[in-house]
Design a protein that fits this description.
Length: 400
Amino acid sequence: MPRYRYSALQANGLTIRGEMEAASPLDLELRLERQGVELLRVRRRWTLSWDSDLHLSRQDIITFTFMLEQLLAAGIPLLDGLKDLRNTIPQRNMQSLVSELVEAIENGQTLSSALARHPQLFGPYYVSLVEAGERSGDMVKVLNRLTLALKWQDELIAQTRRLLFYPSFAGGVVLSVVLFLLLYLVPQLASFIQTVGQTLPWQTRILLSVGNFLRDDWYIVVGILLLALLSFGIWLQSSPLAKLKMDQSILKLWRFGPVLKKLLLARFASTFALLFRAGIPVLDALDICSRATRNRAISIAIVQAREAIIEGKSISESFAHANIFPPLVLRMLRIGETTGNMDQSLENVSYFYQREVQESIARLQTLVEPVLTAILGLILAWIMISVLGPVYDILSRLKF
């Protein structure tokens, strides 16, 4: 169904802008009239087939969840709360999303089914929790926990980006310096050295050959890199076994692998605990978690744990069989099963991994910066010695 961008006039005289799916401009006008809004202008939005959904950031989703939770906590009915959100949110895409939710609910759909129409924004984890809140009648508590979980996941992503920023920035700077030396300075100095009749050392000849190749045949390098990346991407997409091997290899990377595994298990523990506390059956919760986990190795382990539970094993035995949790976590789950307080045990596991991830990222940051600085310094030192060493020899032989 095509999407339309529109401007409309509310009953209070305010003009709003947004987007909405409709069969035609007339259908759009009728839909807005049912919402008490008068259409002013409309223009069809042409989109590519893979770009048909709304684009909202994680912060937008967190803001939407928090504001909806606050409105419901104040006793405002769901439909009225969504209309208030639509009229107060300045962002066009958010207005369009809320308008579609309002229309869906007015047509008899539930909030969870309306959210499920946007899987790129609201995954099965989000939709299942909202559906559980609808069944239990405790939507405010579910939205509150969901907001906290989304904020925590956003903080984890921000910490991971900070961890990767320094290596990326330092690597980019050093790469720029190396290219400048290879493409400009090394050829100039090599020409000067040969002019005065000196023989170039082997390391300088290597640098000069590399620089000449990059300058004269750069398109070969770029072509090979693009072809390698494209082939690698096609290989991963076409072979599930290749994707599994790749994900397993990533989890075994030196220093980074264990931190990434803790990060993935932290998200899984947090998601599973939230789903379990919301009253979603264990098997359904594990199915949602397995589909929400992007690392195939962890996803398969969750599926194996789910199959073990189907066969009659307990939760702790199933996770022990899947071999993804350390003994301490398994002991915490076993205690929860023994005492009948599994939801609290899952919360403890989630807290355990949250703390472990934060401490691991902090330790990795303190390790990466000096190690990377030393490596990049050695590379630059070797290049500078290879370039300036012969020049120093020439100057030392000159008699003034």
